[in-house]
């Protein structure tokens, strides 16, 4: 069973918006900090944003700051990535990742290796 499942990807025009979701089954998602990463063909997987388990702390890569927003609904065990004003260079496979954070409700990380649960990814293609 895949720990996390992403959904909401698709083909859109430049300037459009998409909302990705990350769902966790069989886990108390409210105990996990969640990060979003993306990987374009031939490139390294890069950090997009993260949210603490409480939702009170977020962080974003400079390339998406002001365009992407992460939120969470712990009652529904989901974390969302709202992407606005999409650009061609946003084209990539998008992955959510999670790590249990029992000590701190405000912890999150931009480091890929800090996360131990991953989804299989959802493709976002921005093209005219």
Count every helix, treating DSSP H or I runs of 4 or more residues as helices: 0
Largest sheet: 7 strands, mixed
CA distance, first residue to last residue:
36 Å
Query: Strand fraction band?
Result: over 45%
| Overall body shape | globular
SS elements, strand count: 11
Radius of gyration: 14 Å
* Helix share, percent: under 10%
Structural class: mainly beta
For this entry, what is the oligomeric state of its chains?
Answer: single chain
Order of helices and strands: EEEEEEEEEEE
Offer a concise description of the structure:
The protein has strands spanning 4-7, 10-12, 18-24, 32-39, 46-51, 58-60, 68-73, 78-83, 92-100, 117-118, 122-126.
Question: Overview of this structure, please?
Answer:
With 128 residues, the chain is an all-beta fold. It is built from no helices and eleven strands. The strands form two sheets. Strands 2, 4, 5, 6, 9, 10 and 11 form a seven-stranded mixed beta sheet that branches. It is globular, with a radius of gyration of 14 Å.
List the helices and strands and how they pair.
Elements: E1 4-7, E2 10-12, E3 18-24, E4 32-39, E5 46-51, E6 58-60, E7 68-73, E8 78-83, E9 92-100, E10 117-118, E11 122-126
Parallel strand pairs: 2-11
Antiparallel strand pairs: 1-3, 3-8, 4-5, 4-9, 5-6, 7-8, 9-10, 9-11
Overview features:
single chain; about 130 residues; mainly beta; 7-stranded mixed beta sheet; 4-stranded antiparallel beta sheet; 11 strands; globular
């Amino acid at each position: 069973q895949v720990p996390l499942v992403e959904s909401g990807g698709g083909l859109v025009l430049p300037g459009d918006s998409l909302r990705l979701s990350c769902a966790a089954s069989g886990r108390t998602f409210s105990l996990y900090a969640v990060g979003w990463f993306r990987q374009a063909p031939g490139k390294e997987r890069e950090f997009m944003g993260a949210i603490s388990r409480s939702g009170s702390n977020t962080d974003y890569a400079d390339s998406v700051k002001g365009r992407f927003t992460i939120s969470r609904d712990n009652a529904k065990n989901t974390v969302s990535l709202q992407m606005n004003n999409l650009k061609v260079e946003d084209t990539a496979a998008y992955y959510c990742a999670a790590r249990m954070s029992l000590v701190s409700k405000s912890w999150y990380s931009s480091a890929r290796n800090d996360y131990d649960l991953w989804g299989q990814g959802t493709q976002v293609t921005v093209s005219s």
